[in-house]
Design a protein that fits this description.
Elements lengths: L9 E4 L4 E5 L13 E2 L21 E3 L11 E6 L5 E2 L8 E5 L7 H16 L4 E4 L5 H4 L2 E3 L25 H11 L3 E6 L1 H17 L4 E6 L15 H20 L4 E7 L6 H10 L4 E3 L13 H12 L1 E7 L4 H8 L16 H16 L5 E5 L12 H19 L5 E6 L2 E6 H5 L10 H10 L7 H9 L11 H9 L9
Parallel strand pairs: 2-5, 7-8, 7-10, 10-11, 11-16, 12-14, 12-15, 13-14
Antiparallel strand pairs: 1-2, 3-6, 4-5, 5-17, 8-9, 16-17
Helix pairs in contact: 1-10, 3-4, 5-6
The protein binds adenosine-5'-triphosphate (ATP), 6-O-phosphono-beta-D-fructofuranose (F6P) and magnesium ion.
């Protein structure tokens, strides 16, 4: 691994409690770099746009629900094209890499970086690194041109390939240096962004004029600070097909139960949104929700009750739900993948078996259970229309930031406005569904399932929450925010 040194956060304070958490810039360690006029000013498509360039002082507020007396709070630098850039077009040698699991929209982001660099900035050298991080030092590379990427947004997956594990910082930065790469676009989840952060630290340590831009990706929608991750909308939409199938199967037979397992290793956003969108779901189980099988008011009793009332039911379960229960009954060993992520036990199969055992044992009613596991089908598809547009904006924001000399940043919408966010803000915490929040309450009222929470569970969950309207001011309090981030579901 590379340098352990961490760049100190760039905090800029203003009036009335205004704080800007800025991202690094190449001139922080290469102060004499020359600048050039942005070639976009001569681009026929953009030159007519009034105020196309972002004002140097534009920032985006992290919190937009405020009180009269609230301090202005934390802000991020607004993404977008700047009047002056730090690279000449023919000087740029960019590369793109995709890491971690698949997600709808990966190819769109690749396409839009390539086409954007070509069309807007006149950059003609863009290299695709194949097979994730380890591709920097052990795989082939491919030259990317607008022609070679023209149709790729219509395909699922990533044309570059991806992988878990294999992040060797020194070898990666050696490869960047040897190839003369000076803009690195890294698309991936929390693990990938941690990797991007150490690559940036090493590049800075070596004093290289190389901009590192992260584009956050995760199907689970568990990346902090940003409004939503790309591909999530597509995944929720695709999940409807599985839920519909489960519903049709369940309502066509006597005491039919449809169980659908959806992705969500540590957070249940896909399951929660797919459930809310469908309205056919009777029960949604997510990693954040402690539930038990046996006992008064617990899951098996609820299933029995719902079957008696309706004659059928649909259960959506996120893959990370009930892992404690599953591990107990399967006496599991703790396995990890190449990136160090916990490998989960199949909660869908386990739950289906437990339900069948319960009804066989009790001989109260004969049930008909169908288990549907569309896990990979919801992420191995092309992105839908709204994700395609979103991916375009992410790619453009990353490209404008790198051209403007910003580095060590990731991009994403914060309250609807795209911003440059320091890596540590999204790698330090993972977003989770807050089960004492209004969004989960909406789900409970839609499914009419029990909360499965004891008063102790409610107290514990509330303790983890930040007071809803409190605006945090100084560094200490901001740290507290990172430990207890205000969850995105609450925003609605
Ligand atoms: N702490 C870390 N430091 C450096 N590299 C890391 C770190 N964590 C993960 N990586 C690297 O990032 C890459 C992707 O990580 P991982 O497999 O965890 O997926 P991810 O980016 O979190 O995406 P997702 O979990 O959404 O599929 C891997 O190559 C892994 O080696
Ligand atoms: O089988 P793979 O490729 O490791 O990916 C599975 C994991 O990737 C994710 O989609 C994202 O982290 C998880 O929800 C899921 O557990
Ligand atoms: Mg991850």
């Amino acid at each position: 691994m590379g340098s352990e040194e961490k760049t100190t956060p760039k905090m800029i304070r203003g009036e009335a409690g205004y704080v800007l958490e800025d991202v690094p810039h190449l001139i922080d360690y290469l102060p004499d770099l020359p600048t050039y006029p942005n070639p976009l000013q001569d681009n026929p498509a953009y030159s007519v746009v009034k105020q196309y360039f972002v004002d140097i002082d534009d920032t985006v507020a992290q919190k937009i629900v405020v009180h009269k007396s609230s301090p202005r709070g934390m802000h991020f630098r607004r993404a977008g094209p700047r009047q002056r850039v730090y690279f000449e077009s023919d000087e740029v040698h960019a590369c793109i890499v995709t890491c971690g699991g698949l997600c709808p929209g990966l190819n769109t982001v690749i396409r839009e970086i390539v086409c954007g660099l070509y069309d807007m900035y006149g950059v003609h050298k863009v290299l695709g690194i194949e097979g994730g991080y380890k591709g920097f030092y052990s795989s082939n590379t491919t030259n990317l041109t607008p022609k070679s990427v023209n149709d790729i947004h219509k395909r699922g997956g990533t044309i570059l390939g991806t992988s878990r594990g294999g992040h060797d910082t020194l070898k990666i930065v050696d490869s960047i240096e040897d190839r003369g790469i000076n803009q690195v676009y890294i698309i991936g989840g929390d693990g990938t962004q941690k990797g991007a952060s150490v690559i940036f630290e090493e590049i800075q340590k070596r004093g290289l004029k190389v901009a590192v831009a992260g584009i956050p990706k995760t199907i689970d929608n568990d990346i902090a600070v940003i409004d939503q991750s790309f591909g999530f909308d597509t995944a929720v939409e695709e999940a409807q097909r599985a839920i519909n199938a489960a519903h049709v199967e369940a309502e066509s037979v006597e005491n039919g139960i449809g169980v659908v397992k959806l992705m969500g290793r540590y957070s249940g956003f896909i399951a929660m949104y797919a459930t809310l969108a469908s309205r056919d779901v009777d029960c949604c189980l997510i990693p954040e929700l402690p539930f038990r099988l046996e006992g008064k008011g617990e899951l098996l009793e609820f299933i029995e009750k719902r079957l008696k009332e309706n004659g059928h039911m649909v259960i959506v379960v996120a893959e990370g739900a009930g892992q404690v229960l599953t591990a107990e009954s399967m006496r599991s060993v703790d396995h990890q993948d190449a990136s160090g992520n916990k490998l989960l036990l199949d909660v869908g199969l386990w739950l289906s078996q437990k339900i069948k055992d319960h009804f066989t044992r009790n001989k109260k009613m004969h049930i008909n259970l169908k288990y549907i596991d569309p896990t990979y089908m919801i992420r191995a598809i092309p992105s839908n229309a709204s994700d395609n547009i979103y991916c375009t904006l992410l790619a453009h924001s990353a490209m404008h930031g790198a051209m403007a000399g910003y580095t060590g940043f990731t991009v994403g919408p914060v309250n609807g406005r795209h911003a440059y966010i320091p890596f540590h803000r999204i790698t330090g915490v993972q977003n989770k569904v807050v089960i004492t929040d209004r969004m989960w309450a909406r789900l409970l009222s839609s499914t009419n399932q029990p909360s499965f929470l004891s008063s102790r569970d409610v107290e514990d969950a509330k303790k983890e929450e930040e007071p809803p309207t409190q605006q945090l001011l100084d560094g200490e309090k901001e740290k507290q925010h990172q430990d207890n981030p205000n969850k995105k579901a609450a925003a609605a």
